[in-house]
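Request: Mind sharing a record?
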Amino acid sequence: MLFVPGDRPDRFAKAVASGADAVILDLEDAVTADRRGYAREAIAEYLQGPRAGVPIWVRINPVESADALADLAAVVRARPDGVILPKARHGGDVSRLDHWLEMLECEHGLAAGAVRVMPMITETAGALLALASFTPAPSRVTAMTWGAEDLATELGALGNRTATGDYEPAFELARSLCLITAAAAGVQAIDTVDTEIRDVAAVERRARLSRRAGYLGKLAIHPAQIPAIHAAFTPGAAELDWARRVLEAMAAAPAAGAVKVDGKLIDRPHVLQAERLLAAGGQAGQR
């Protein structure tokens, strides 16, 4: 999911054509306060034009800000595919956004729940202590993500990564808890941005670690990051071969609770993993 500043409409079409799986038009950190009015108009105008089939999301401002409702009023009428909620402090912020969207969907003739939501749930210290409140989530919440930059500012940290590029303990904790919270809510977990835009090998390495941990995707801040992220999240030939053999072995022994594949016992959790791998690889798994 590629971020684009909302006050740079000259970049919107380029972002859509970049190969990203979704584009996020940003009204928050990437846009100064004096430019937000212009950015809202630019986003609404773009959303009302022809769509290229790539989902377009909008990151609004935090619900407690004076800008949040103005952001929604400007863009919901243009039917974005989803809304990113930054700096969500607790589940109440998500519920508040859900109610606002219900009202605006009704006003503009949209089906209830048409606009999806992905909250950013670790950008404040208080949110980390309230993660349980994000579950259960309103049905329009389809994913959760997290942020390390704003959290670093709140904690007073001089940085969020070690000299080797790995997250410091507090931020690794936030990353893990986002993954766990999303799983508890039954929604997708999308990893946060990598600020490195030149060392794409580092971006790919970190994205592979994200996928290994359980994340299903990643936020991006530059088109140069997209090939590396795609490479990291696309199952390799060996993984797909393993997945096919797992399903074949289980199908051949329908009465068995577990079977052997590559000298290891395979049971129901492995079948689910195999199905997910085949789905991620664009192949149809069979139960």
